Amino acid sequence: MSAKPSPRATERMVYMTDVDIVGVGFGPANLALAIAIEEYNAECAPGQSVRAMFIERRDQFGWHPGMLLDGATMQIAFPKDLVTFRNPRSAYSFVNYLFERERLVDFVNHQTFFPTRHEFHDYLSWAVDRVDADVRFGTSVESIRAIEAGDVLEVRCDDGTVVRTRNVAIGAGLRKRIPQWATPSARCFHNHDFLPRIAELPDPAHSRFAVLGAGQSAAEVVQHLHQRFPRAEVHSIFSRYGYSPADDSPYANRIFDPGAVDELHRAPAEVRSDLLARHRSTNYSVVDIELIDELYRAEYAERVSGDRRLFMRRASSVDSVVDTTTGINVVVRDHISGATDTLECDALVLATGFEPAPLRPMLGELAPTQTAEQIVSRDYRLATPATVTAGIYLQGGTEKTHGITSSLLSNVAVRAGEILDSVVTGRGGEDSGVRVDPSTETSRRVTPATTFAGSATR
After folding, report:
1. Integer Cα distance of 377 and 421 in angstroms
2. 51 and 34 in contact (C-beta within 8 Å)?
């Protein structure tokens, strides 16, 4: 890979570069797109290659490093990697990664479809190291605006870089959902930052931890704390009566199929909303049944021995927290009895999920208003004002239009191929994008723009 961390200049220096597409963020979604572009360029006709640049605010690649817990496994099967569902013959498949790491036979003997999170992170890093892509690490996108006749986007970065492009693919990821009553601190933090925060935590003074949340991440953190601190209490706080198992049955899992995206996108909005609500148990606030069983066995064994350390605070919530000189006081409310009690803890972990990052700070008037319904075409292209013909593609934040796979790994390979196909088709003079008349906020089709001067297609 040609990408190296971008050095910070002592003075802001602006330089212009023309590319066909800029990827904002370089997580798995845009990594899959970079691979798709490399494979397309290797086989396309002379002069038809796609030139891309990726801009990543972090100094190096990382995929949820704060939750790379020992023994934690993936919740998706390994064929749902960066490429296989798009191109089973790709050299970037998880199977080829195993072959090159000389673990293919050993993995097969392991008889599992679900590698550990550590191994999958290594697979992603292996792909980053070998992909031929221009990635500017350590750089953040400050703004994206339409210029010229609306067929070019100007991407401005915090290091002074200005890029002209016909398309952008926004894979900026999700942002942490923090309760209003919580102020992040050294002792109150989101599970996304779990491992580094626990490593920096002062010596426990109370031998007690609290974890808020009822999903897979919450349960994994509870188990990790219970095992790592063998003398500490761990209180799992959630509004449900108990952990609910994830529905990973074959028929329910079809909601993650690439074909489901077609069906959901063309379905009436009320039908799509109803189906997504009915299948929330495949992904949201649910826990693998094996982990539920492990936690239950641990809790039951403590009940037998009388040495209680694991507590399930069911049908409960956190009313407030107060940082102290030695820890954090967590006020827990029992919804059934109405009673509250205060836990003196060494840390409170907020396993409270994520939400799509807002588009307006980056896109400005190119993004829909907060009151407008976000219109996204089947090829993941965001509807833009009628005067803008450049393409803005969303690598996430499209659950309401495309289904549950929007923010998951399940469909990154196929989605990358679909976005690339749309970019190449649009460059050839066809345009499947949807436009919005800002006065009515209704969608309409427009005549496509030609490829701008400076494109790699010349």
Report:
1. 14
2. no
